[in-house]
Design a protein that fits this description.
The complex is a heterodimer.
Chain A: H1 3-6, H2 13-20, H3 26-38, H4 40-65, H5 80-90, H6 93-124, H7 135-150, H8 181-190, H9 199-210
Chain B: H1 7-15, H2 19-41, H3 44-60, H4 71-89, H5 95-105, H6 117-135, H7 139-149, H8 155-162, H9 166-190
Classes of the chains: A mainly alpha, B mainly alpha.
Chain lengths: ~210, ~190
């Protein structure tokens, strides 16, 4: 495309463009209409540019007909608070009241349970760390504790499952008393053993072997 | 009667953390930015990507928006830059590829039932010719003609977006129309 082909045929090309696109004011429009009557180049260009614009408009309309607005990303998950708020907004009055009552009851029950646990904990740990115990006191406390342990336990109710202790036979205690000499000899005889200190018997036995 | 917030107010809301505000801006300008990118790139898929990239870039640089220019000018400038950088990245598609794509996409355009098959074929050929003609324009001419014909921006708005004198916008538009006229005449003489 050479420059001469692109160069305006008339020096009023900018006015032609403003006139063509309707951006000339009233006075400029009137003035250019008068010019068009005298300038054949501008008349031809105005007509041909009009055709070009129609073709572009057809292309544009077809191109933009397929345009579908893309949805703008929205947060998919609601916060728990927002969901709760929406629930209360949508629910009837009686349901709101029932929910509130249930919530209050739940809170009271939980509070009571926590208070009870707390008081038990305090009782069991009610020990004065600054108390001084003598040996006699300690012995007395131990005796009392042992006595409490030996007390018969209250029988369990029938409904509750009973824990059955499995009794294993106790191993027989080894005798702590040493064997007497007679017993040792008897045991050695039963086992056909000879007493280690009997030299004469050894000698006689050796003689017999040598023979 | 509810008055529409200006673009500048919407941007201010977005800057103060209003998550919905930027979405409103997107909905307001999406179609026009798409028209611009379609006109500049000539392919629906590329135009959609460029439109998306435009709004992403706008969102990223939202804090840098000083309010010296109009929001619309700012968005258009981003879109034009997106198209230019995209065209630099992507290889120029061959004429045959464009024609093939035109064949496959033609069915998605809504055509009046009264059109005869000959009219439809002729229309498709004419549309393809216009597209080829626009795509073959130099970028500086194409962006002016697209902003004017696809978006119907005023000369002043185009001058603001492209940071050009008003006279340059008019002369570029004149040159663009002249070149399009000659290209379309060639097409008609061939058929």
């Amino acid at each position: 495309m050479n420059e001469r082909q692109n160069s305006p045929s008339c020096e009023r090309a900018p006015d032609l463009i403003a006139f063509l696109y309707g951006e000339a004011d009233e006075r400029e429009t009137r003035d250019f209409q008068l010019h068009l009557q005298q300038c054949s180049a501008c008349r031809e260009e105005a007509a041909s540019f009009g055709v070009v614009r129609e073709s572009i408009a057809e292309y544009r309309d077809e191109a933009l007909a397929g345009f579908v607005s893309t949805p703008v990303a929205q947060p998919k998950t609601k916060s728990a608070l927002a969901a709760l708020r929406q629930f209360f907004d949508l629910s009837p009055l009686w349901l709101k009241g029932a929910t509130a009552l249930a919530a209050v009851t739940f809170c009271v029950v939980v509070g009571l349970v926590l208070f009870r646990d707390n008081s038990n904990h305090v009782t069991s740990t009610n020990v004065n760390p600054n108390a001084v115990y003598t040996e006699q006191d300690v012995n007395r406390i131990v005796k009392e504790a042992l006595a409490n342990q030996q007390k018969p336990q209250p029988s369990q109710p029938e409904n509750e499952p009973q824990i059955v202790a499995v009794k294993y036979p106790k191993p027989k205690p080894k005798s702590q008393r040493p064997l007497s000499k007679a017993e040792r000899e008897q045991l050695a005889a039963e086992l056909r053993l000879l007493p280690s200190n009997d030299d004469t018997t050894f000698q006689s036995l050796e003689d017999r072997i040598n023979q | 009667m509810e008055t529409l917030a200006t673009d500048e107010i919407i941007v201010e809301r977005a800057l103060t953390g209003d998550a919905e505000a930027f979405g409103e801006l997107v909905r307001r300008w999406e179609r026009r930015i798409f028209a611009l990118t379609y006109g500049m790139l000539g392919r629906e898929e590329d135009a959609r990507d460029a439109t998306q990239e435009t709004f992403l870039a706008a969102f990223r640089s939202l804090r840098n928006f000083r309010g010296e220019a109009k929001v619309s000018s700012w968005l258009h400038r981003i879109a034009v830059n997106q198209c230019i950088s995209r065209q630099r990245r992507v290889k120029v598609r061959s004429e045959s590829a464009l024609e093939d794509e035109q064949e496959t996409n033609a069915g998605s355009f809504a055509m009046p039932v009264s059109y005869s098959p000959a009219h439809v074929v002729e229309g498709r050929q004419q549309t393809a010719a216009v597209r080829r003609a626009i795509n073959s324009l130099p970028v500086e001419l194409r962006q002016v003609v697209v902003m004017k014909e696809f978006e119907e921006l005023t000369f002043r708005e185009i001058a603001d977006v492209l940071d050009l004198p008003l006279s340059t916008v008019k002369s570029r538009l004149y040159t663009a129309l002249k070149q399009l006229q000659m290209r379309l005449q060639k097409f008609e003489s061939r058929n």
